[in-house]
Design a protein that fits this description.
With about 280 residues, the chain is α+β, with helices and mostly antiparallel strands. The chain has one domain (about 5-220): q2cbj1_9rhob like domain (Jelly Rolls), CATH 2.60.120.620. About 35% of the residues lie in helices and about 25% in strands. The strands form 4 sheets. A 6-stranded antiparallel β-sheet has the order 1-10-5-12-3-2. Strands 4-7-8-9 form a 4-stranded antiparallel β-sheet, with helices on one face. A hairpin with a 5-residue loop joins strand 8 (about 160-165) and strand 9.
Length: about 280
């Protein structure tokens, strides 16, 4: 199957040896410089723009290969972040939250996830729930979850409860533990796991010191609205409180605009964030 058809039918694709040894060394050295992203929700490493630029052509070509006309078409590469188990990264089952809070959809959203340090290919991977497994086990639930985000999972008495962490309540309840339909692709350093934004995933384990580069891509032409941004719940409020600079800038943009494209929102909010950041 092609990369695009894998993403449509399964929600993920493993692209072996995406980065070569020289590129891995560059990213490993960059991570060792220990630059942090300003976000108190979790501890992420910041990727230097010049290091990311060195593989931009490769990632851009990869992005072209994932597109499916009228269905899945990310057109913009964002910055990168390092996710490291020794920095406390240990997530349970979830759909990504902050990308959904900001971009309001996970259609046309792609996570390019590449381990740059990984001692054992069978450990400290990402476990995932493939789309075809969803459609067999609970097609009704998947209809509610497709292209969504900001969901967390709680298992109780053999049932799986999937919360709506964007506006509150539950999205779906399953009559089985979600682990029963999970898979865990084994990755080596340099292998890329291409993951749709609506895919449920979790940290397999933290038994090894794994560092992964994550570069996100999305479609800048999607429209975002003030009403969607203002919907909230306790979990979403907690995220906002831990990243006041970013969410404050987005709120300021929406004070002046009831709707605009993702691209316009990010340009305007990033400009405000830079204006309010003290000189180092």
């Amino acid at each position: 199957m092609t990369i695009a058809s894998d993403l449509m039918n399964r929600g993920f694709h493993v692209f072996r040896q995406c980065l070569n040894e020289e590129e891995l060394t560059d990213f490993h050295d960059d991570y060792a410089s220990d630059k942090a992203i300003d976000n108190n929700a979790y501890r992420l490493g910041k990727v230097s723009p010049q290091v990311l630029l060195s593989v931009q052509g490769k990632l851009t070509r990869l992005l072209e290969s994932v597109k499916t006309e009228h269905v899945f078409a990310p057109n913009h590469l964002g910055g990168g972040a390092y996710f490291a188990t020794d920095k406390g990264i240990d997530f349970g089952w979830h759909q990504d939250h902050e990308s959904f809070f900001m971009q309001q959809t996970h259609q046309d959203y792609l996570n390019i996830y590449i381990p740059i340090a990984k001692p054992n290919p069978t450990q400290s991977n990402l476990s995932i729930i493939p789309i075809d497994s969803w459609k067999v086990a609970s097609p009704e639930a998947w209809k509610l979850l497709e292209w969504q985000g900001a969901s967390s999972v709680r298992t109780e008495n053999g049932k799986t409860h999937i919360s709506n962490d964007h506006s509150g309540g539950e999205r779906a309840t399953l009559n089985f533990p979600i682990d029963e339909i999970s898979e865990t692709p084994c990755l080596n350093p340099g292998d890329a796991l291409l993951l749709r934004g609506d895919m449920f995933h979790k940290t397999q384990d933290t038994q090894t010191n794994r560092v992964a580069l994550s570069v996100r891509a999305w479609n800048n032409r999607h429209t975002v609205t003030r009403d969607h941004f203002l919907e909230t719940c306790e979990v979403k409020d907690a995220f906002k409180e831990k990243n006041t600079s970013m969410y404050g800038a987005i709120a300021s943009v929406f004070e002046a605009h009831s709707q605009l494209t993702i691209g316009e929102l990010l340009v305007r909010s990033n400009a405000l964030t830079q204006q309010t950041t003290p000189d180092s």
